Amino acid sequence: MAKQQLAVFITLLAFVGPAACQQKGLHICFNGWLKVPSLLSYLLCPPGSRTTNPPPTSSPTTPAPPSGAELSYDYYNNNGSSSYCPSAESLVKDAVKKAIDMDPGHAANIYSSSTEIFVCDDMVNFQGCDASVLLNTTTSKDSPTDTEREGPPNKNSLRGFEVIDAAKAAIEAACPRTVSCADIVAFAARDASSLLSYGSINIRMAGGRLDGRVSFANETDQLPGPFSSLAQLQSSFREKGLTSDEMVTLSGAHSIGKAHCGFFSDRLPPNPSTMDYAFATELEVKCEDNEANMVDQDYQTAYVLDNKFYENVRANKVLFDSDDALKTVREVKQNAEYPEIWERKFEKAMENLGRLVDVKSRREGEIRETCWRVNGY
């Protein structure tokens, strides 16, 4: 959702009061997705009005390890099992590569989209990777605006669904009702990472997930946003069993892709900001006072997945408040100076992210025939 639209919501809520924070389908108290004065934030969303989350299962200093013990590598290569589909992973890679080859200029968008879908699916709700972010039709027969896909942090932001749909269509033709959309999302993120890093990043991604049958827009408030503080970022990842180092490592994905000017316009002149002034001035020209305009997230190598993001953090040449918040973390220096160390850490962090899954029983989950709707609807 464009920032100007969010501004309208804020204005309306200022008149209708904090109760609106719990209106059906309208949750504005996102974790770092709104940049509002602290007093206004308190008035709009006082304590108790936010969506409440179960307490983390671990202490702040000892994160619980990612789950997903039921997952396995080469899951679809087990001849004789009901999950046998030896072409599954190659068909996903073909779909990702074809999308990149057809439109090289948008390769970064394809990468950032596939990875964002993967991250948003894993970080939202307490069931992890279940492809719920792809749904616009669920068992509850909610309207499309009630699903994660239409939640304010995702709406008009997540793209690349057509790549997932193309992979699913090819797999259904080869192995009907065998490969989950959740696994396709995970494999697509893996393959896009490899292709856009020119083979420098190769993630081991297990399979065996089932697709969820519910999806709720109001659960997208768990996603860390562009205005998140360091404490908010660490808390979001800690609640999923991921460490602060993994949070910093995964933030390196901001070395590729584009961002709406509305998510960092408050850091541009004449506003006070820690952003490098010359860099901020260049961005101001590109944004042209239009918050819907988009710019590259990495000014150095905008179409390559690499460690340049960390160099940008140290040089005060990053877009978001949440990126700038990382400059005090010691791992940023290491990631900037030793690209191979960051690549190996990124591989492992993505693998762990993919294991944030409560593998469902056949009663609770399914293998969707079409990724954007549950079976039978």
TrEMBL record:
Task: Please give the cofactor(s) recorded in the UniProt entry for this protein.
Answer: heme b; Ca(2+)
One Pfam annotation reads peroxidase
Q: Which residues bind Ca(2+) 1?
A: 121, 124, 128, 130, 132, 148
At which positions is heme b bound? 254
User: Which reactions does this protein catalyse?
Assistant: 2 a phenolic donor + H2O2 = 2 a phenolic radical donor + 2 H2O
Q: Where is the composition biased (Basic and acidic residues)?
A: 143-152
Would you indicate the residue range of the signal peptide?
Answer: 1-21
Q: What is this protein called?
A: Peroxidase
Task: Give the originating organism.
Answer: Eleusine coracana subsp. coracana
